[in-house]
Amino acid sequence: MTGTPLVPSGDAARVLGISSRTLQRYVKAGLVTPDLVLASGQYRWDVARLREQINGLHSWTVTSVRPSTEPAVGPAVGPAVAPRPVVSSPDLAAELAIRLNEVAPAGFTVEAENNQVTVRHLGELVGRSGAAEVLDSVEGTQSPVEAIERAARVILDTVRDYFVDISTRPWPGERSGADPGVSMSGSVLELWFGDRSDPVLTLRAIDLTP
Fold it and tell me: Which of the residues in the chain have pLDDT under 50?
């Protein structure tokens, strides 16, 4: 032990921009390990160490995803290469918040605050996801497509968990288990919940053409 104060799961999740439900799923899946398990079964966390575990989980160590200035690799003559998607953290947060707000359950509002997506219920802040910040720490470790897809998937997952936690009802649909799906097709980010071939809910796509 380093003497660093250990905090409950709810506090740790709040600091890291994920929901308590998301953190619980990570623990059950063996993806993160608490620093202390109390006799009651509750967890205690060193927030800095938990952040490192989650960063490693998502390969998040990257300033912002920008258009590449490097020359294309390959033959000098050939078909034109499609432009790489490019988006800043605040822009991605804003676009995702707009689309999630369009489908949010009654009483919920989803908004963007700089590079975070916030969830309010009846006007009261219930949580936020700072996953879009991954775009400010990913350069050189993964492609822009991977960074954008990872950030978007975590935001959708976290916001979904806030909807479920507060309303105590499944969302979207009437049954639980409709996990978020994200895929980049060219410069278009496609978003859905459930199976891609038969989604429970499809959000408006985001065009990230530079």
Answer: 1, 58-82, 138-141
